[in-house]
Every structure is written in structure tokens, then in C-alpha cells.
Amino acid sequence: MAAPCLRLGMKQLFKMPAAMGHQGRAYSTSQTFAEVLRLPKKQLTKLVYPLQELEQHLVPDSMPDLHLRVFDPSLEDISRAESVFASSARNRIEYISSAVRLDHAPDLSRPEVCFIGRSNVGKSSLIKALFSLAPEVEVRVSKKPGHTKKMNFFKVGKYFTVVDMPGYGYRAPEDFVDMVEAYLKERRNLKRTFLLVDSAVGITKTDNIAIEMCEEFALPYVMVLTKIDKSSKGHLLKQVLQIQKFVNTQTQGCFPQLFPVSAVTYSGIHLLKCFIANITGNLN
Ligand code: GDP
Fold first, then answer.
1. 25 lines ligand 1 (CB under 6 A)
2. pTM attached to this predicted model
3. Whose CA is nearest to atom 12 of ligand 1?
4. Where in the numbering of this chain does the EngB-type G domain appear (predicted)?
5. Is the CB of 122 inside a 6 Å radius of any atom of ligand 1?
6. Has residue 17 been placed in a domain?
7. Which of the residues 45, 48, 109, 148 has the least number of beta carbons within 10 Å of its own beta carbon?
8. Which residues constitute the domain of residue 169?
9. Which residues of the chain have pLDDT under 70?
10. Residue 15 lies in a domain
């Protein structure tokens, strides 16, 4: 019985253009969004709307609290957001500077978004994936936990600033709390904090400290679930439902919709870019 299905699958694979044949493993950074739009519907949904792809595996109405479409941009919106993240002579995307204290942070008036998460959660990889259309931007990705000990500021054209915060938890810098707390509390142009949680692990005690910090300062924040390519669909679904329940019942400031992403397959990256462009006022 399995053979005809397999043959059909292989046939479809061979019908795809070369770049798309790699879709199951990794998204090529040279692949433009126009090419993404030509993907078969199932693959496109998995790449662009990973939560909706997961939804298809739920028993209908079994989880009415799973927020799938609070932020539900069209493919046209997502395509427009891509240009915000594409580096060009007129839209320079570049590293600006690093700071260990808030008063050393660059004085910028543009809207700002920051990324926080425990060491090794995949923060540098995610930022690198967001900047895949600006390959000249150097975002260090390390195999050793805890290398990001400074706040790193990146300018995205005239649009906004992205801040890579130091990882917390194992081998976090001693002055981490002072640095991060002061930044989160006092940075006036901070529009949104993206709090990264490893989807394979779920919310850890260390993540809870960051969540409590965001809640205490009444910050608007968003939970991004990293490394979704690492888990089976069943495990991922279980984790997503658990984390969604946590967000629904235990948080005030967290955006109700989760953002699952993979820096390896690029699943969810386009949607996240579109969300960032939208909240910084650049999707008009
Ligand atoms: P950071 O310490 O939070 O900046 O984490 P990194 O971005 O340096 O990632 C930590 C480790 O996880 C590295 O070995 C990455 O290659 C790996 N990693 C990061 N993102 C992903 C992902 O989306 N999928 C998989 N499979 N591995 C990832």
C-alpha cells in the first residue's frame, strides 16, 4: 500500500523546480519570496504559516483557545515586509554598535524591537535568519552558550532598530540583570520585546524569570518558539498547546498568538518579519 503513495511523492518532488526540492530540509537564502509563492500550497503553508499547518493536525474545535489568526497578514503583506528586510543602497541594514549599559546604547529615535532568551535558545540564529536578505550583516552564531554578553544594535534602513540582548541563564554576564532590566524598563523607543522559548524544551524556570520581568514592567511582548524543525509534529503540537495555555492563563502583556520559527528551514520567519514591519509602523 505504501509504494503508490511514495511514488506519487517522488513524482511531485521531481516536478518541482530545483530550489523547491530542498524545501523539506532548508530554505535557500537566495530564494526570493516570489519563488516561495510558487511553492505547492501545502509547502507554502508550512513555510509561511507554520501554526496553521499544525492546526490541521488538531481535532476540530479541540483547542478553541489556540490563537491562529490574531495576526493573519495576506501573502501580499508578507511580500511587502520582505522588502523592508532586504538590504540595498537605499535601505542599508547594518550593525551599529554594542553596549554593556543602557547609557552606552546609541541614541536612536527609530522604533526598536529587542530579542531576549536564555543562552542557546537560538537567538543569534534567528536574527541571522531575519537578516538573510542582508548577508553582509555579521551576526555571530556560536556553538558555545553565552557568547552574547552585550546588547548589539542593528539598523534596518530608516525603518527600525533590532537589538540582540545578551542570553540569560547559564554563563550569563553578572551584570545581565542590571543591563537588561534597565533597558527593558527605560528604553523609550522600545516597541516590542520578542521572548524566545525553545519549542523542543518548553518554558523553563529561566524563561519564567524573563516572563516575570516583562509582566512586571507591563511590556508588550511576543513569545517566539524556536527550533521547530527539531521536533516531531506530535511533540511540537503538544508543546505549542501547553505554551498557548500558559500564555492564555498566566500572562497579561504577552501577544496572544505564538510565533513558531526555524532558523534552519526558515519556517515562520517571513511571518515574523511581517509582524515586526507591522508593529514598527512600516507596513502601510
Ligand atoms: P543563542 O545562544 O541563543 O544565540 O543561540 P544560537 O543561535 O547560537 O544557537 C544555539 C545552537 O542551536 C546552535 O548550535 C545553532 O546551530 C542551533 N540552532 C539555532 N536555531 C536553530 C533552529 O532553528 N533549528 C535547529 N535545529 N538548530 C538551531
1. no
2. 0.87
3. 122
4. 109-282
5. yes
6. no
7. 109
8. 33-280
9. 1-31, 61-64, 141-148, 170-175
10. no
